[in-house]
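seq/struct pair 1
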Amino acid sequence: MDTTTSVTAIADDYRAIFENAPVHSRDSLEDLLVQHGDWSPEAAKHLMQLAENYGSFMLRNALAISLALEIEDGEFGF
């Protein structure tokens, strides 16, 4: 899998979803993830918490580790 391309494509998809958000509050962004990203409300909340709490530097490294160890779904099963 070419992760650079796939991560870039996913980021572009989320940019498109979020760019028309009337308000960039956590609740409105979570709602957009549910409506347009096909996430459950619980998963959308967890995604937003991860992004806000850890940021791209930490999550990029976590992504690299999960790819190296071939961890696809993780313990939470999202």
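seq/struct pair 2
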Amino acid sequence: MNKKTPRQKINELSILNGTEGFYGKHNQFSILIKSRLYTQATKIMNSLNQGFLWSNERLVHSTIYDNLLDSVSVKDIKLKFI
């Protein structure tokens, strides 16, 4: 049995949501997954920042968030930036 990535789960939930709109049950689960990953990406970015400023914070955060959507481990994400 293959484990689904968060990106696949979000796509599946958006299909299940259909025409229920923003307040649909499936859309709310999708928003929950996205906000959890966004918060986790922020924490990872803060743990990587050891006294220096990022030259492009949005790019770094977006890269970390995309990696989390694809189920890349936190350890591998940190190794990319160290």
